[in-house]
Amino acid sequence: MLRLLLLTALTALVLAEEEELQLRYVETVEERVVGGEIARPNSWPWQISLQYKSGSNYYHTCGGSLIRKQWVMTAAHCVDSRRTWRVVLGDHNISAHEGKEQYIGVSHVYIHPNWNSNRISNGYDIALLRLSNEAVLNSNVQLALLPPSGQVLPHNNPCYITGWGRTSTGGQLSSQLKQAYLPVVDHKTCSSGSWWGGSVKTTMVCAGGGSLSGCQGDSGGPLNCQVSGRYYVHGVTSFVSAQGCNQQRKPTVFTRVSAYISWLENVSNSIFYLSNNYNMNFHLSVAHKYHSEK
């Protein structure tokens, strides 16, 4: 399901615009959900589809997480090119209009200042999107829970990656949202020489490392990890092996959200003081439908 070759975020590469995109990523980055299964519709109600405009149409390129009514968290590499963006909330089948979707434009993109598109392994692959309007929360659209600042999950903590990415290396995007079980691989293991080595920093989290992984089109989407019976977004899908999405001992690598809570708060607070629209508190939680154990 989720196979991620080093994320290009330009999943749009599969959609007729490859030459316009940042080709420097093509050989090193791809993301998708490989293996796994079709998710129950709207069972991950904070998942969004990030889409870019080409001509009169919009095309899926990355995932993301709705963290406040007017804010989406995604990967920096997904939005470090100048485009017209929108997010789609409450979606399941991105190839069909099912009547539950909310389509909202992106008014501003905030990329972490230390992000360097030429040094993906440095980290900082995180961005915030300010939406042009607030999302309407309902049974299909809800806010993600974010972890406490600095929290690091133990080895084998249960997590799921979700996305519409390619279902195999070089394969097609999935029209329906997929999910794959990717338990956490602790940093000591993931950064060892026979795994990712020094490419993995402590501000990242690894998950999977076998037949299930992310892939092209999954970039920016959430790593949903279960803690005390609830799901928190602990990771932003960042990169996989250039050799293919589901390589052994090359687990999918995510930006560790808990390492960037202060940055998320600083961005949101500065916008609040400038716009005086509403106060954002990334530590507030909302009630979610619990996911049953798979």
How are the SSEs placed, and which strands pair?
Blueprint: E1 37-38, E2 47-54, E3 57-68, E4 71-74, E5 85-89, E6 102-111, E7 127-131, E8 159-163, E9 178-181, E10 184-185, H1 187-190, E11 204-207, E12 222-227, E13 230-239, E14 252-256, H2 261-275
Antiparallel strand pairs: 1-9, 2-3, 2-5, 3-4, 4-7, 5-6, 6-7, 8-9, 8-12, 10-11, 11-14, 12-13, 13-14
- The assigned structural class equals mainly beta
* Cα-based radius of gyration, to the nearest Å: 17 Å
The span between the termini is 16 Å
Number of strands: 14
| CATH architectural category | Beta Barrel
As a percent range, the share of strand residues is 25-35%
Mean of all residue-level pLDDT scores: 80
Strand/helix succession: EEEEEEEEEEHEEEEH
Q: Could you state the CATH homologous superfamily?
A: Trypsin-like serine proteases
- Domain count: the total is 1
**Shape label:** globular
Count of helices? 2
What is the CATH C level class, in words? Mainly Beta
Neighbour order of strands in the largest sheet: 1-9-8-12-13-14-11-10
Subcellular location: Secreted
Cofactor: Ca(2+)
Organism: Chanos chanos
EC number: 3.4.21.36
